[in-house]
Amino acid sequence: MARSSYLFTSESVSEGHPDKVCDRISDEVVDLFFREAGKAGMDASQVRVACETLATTNRVVIAGEVRTSLDEKAMKSKVKSVARRAIRDIGYEQDGFHWKTAKIDVLLHPQSVDIAQGVDSAGNKDVGAGDQGIMFGYACTETPELMPAPIYYSHKILENLTKLRKAGERGCGKLGPDAKSQVTIRYENGRPTAVTQIVLSTQHLDASMSSADVRKLVEPIIRETLADIAIDKDCKWWINPTGKFLIGGPDGDSGLTGRKIIVDTYGGAAPHGGGAFSGKDPTKVDRSAAYAARYLAKNIVAAKLADRCTIQLSYAIGVAQPLSVYVDTHGTGKVADDRLEAAVAKVMDLSPRGIREHLGLNKAIYARTSAYGHFGRKATRDGGFSWERTDLVKPLKAAVA
Prior knowledge:
Blueprint: E1 6-13, H1 18-40, E2 48-56, E3 59-67, H2 72-90, E4 93-94, E5 97-98, E6 103-110, H3 113-116, E7 133-140, H4 149-167, E8 175-188, E9 191-204, H5 211-225, E10 230-239, E11 255-256, H6 261-264, H7 285-302, E12 308-315, E13 324-328, H8 337-347, H9 352-359, H10 393-400
Helix pairs in contact: 1-2, 4-5, 7-9, 8-10
C-alpha cells in the first residue's frame, strides 16, 4: 500500500543554469531548421536534428547529426547566430561568458544513413521510430495543470524571478541568470498540504549582497508564488546557503544538453525513460512519445477517469507501432487499467508519424520548452505545448463507456 503521509522534494533550474543554456541552444537549432525548411519549401517531416551543446568559459561547442535545407556554410553561420541570440536573451554579458565574445564551434554533420533508413521509408505511411526506447507520461490532481506540486512550484519560483529580473522590477535586476530552486512539500493522506523547506541559490551581480540581502529581496516573491499552498510556520529557508554567488553560468560550471531530464519532466514523482528531449526533432520518440504519454495521461486525469496516471510507451528503431502500452492509475482509476490501455490506443495513433501529426510537432516550437519544464505549461495558439491540451476527454470517456 502506498504511503499517505510523507515529505517529497523536487528541484528546478533557471534558463541561465549551464545545462539549460545548452538545452536552449540545442532547441534553437531544431527551431532554426524547421523555419529554414519552410522557407526552402522542404517538407518539414524530413527535417532531422540530433544536436548536443557543450558550454564552458567563453566557449560553446555544438555537435550532432542533422538534415537541413541549408548548405554547410550557411548552416554554420545561422547556427552561430541563433546561439548568440539565445545567450543574449538569457542575459549573459559577463567576462567569462558573453554572447558577443564567446567562441562558438559548429560541428554538425549529416545524419547517418544507417539511422535514417529506419525512418525514411519512401512511400510508407507507417515510418518507424528513430530509435528504441521507453517513454513515460504522468498526470495527477495536485495542481490545476495536473502536475506534481513540488516540481510545479519549483519551476514557478524561478520563472517568476526570471521575469522580474529581465524586466528590472522589484530589485531583481541585481540578480544574475543562473539559479536553482528546491521545494519540499508535506503530504497528508496523499495530498500536498504545506511547504516545509525552500532552497534558492541565485546568482547576483552586486558583490556587496549577502545571503541575508538576497533573502530579503526574493522571499516576498517566493511567498507570492506559493500563494496557493500553505508555507509551514516552521519552514526552513535556505537562500544562497554557501554565501556569495557571483560567477554563474558556463563560466562557473560547464553545461551540457540533456543533463536535467528530471527537471524537464516530473521532478522525480514519476518514472523517466532515460532519454533527453532538447536538441531532437520529433522523429525521435525520446521526445515525441514522451509528449504523447503526458498528453494521454493528462487527458485521462482531466476526464476524471483517475486521480493519478502513469503511462509507458516502448519502441524499436524502424518499427512504427509501439511494442507496448502500459497504464497504471495507482489504485485511483474509475475503470480498469487494461481498459484504459485499449482506449488510449483507440483514440490516438501512437506511431511516430501519428504522434507528430496529431500534436502538430513538425514546426518551430521547441526553444520555449528548454526551461521551466516541458509539462504543466499552457498550450499556445501557434501549436506550442500541444501535448497539454485536454481535447481527448470526450473520446476517452466514449472509448471506455
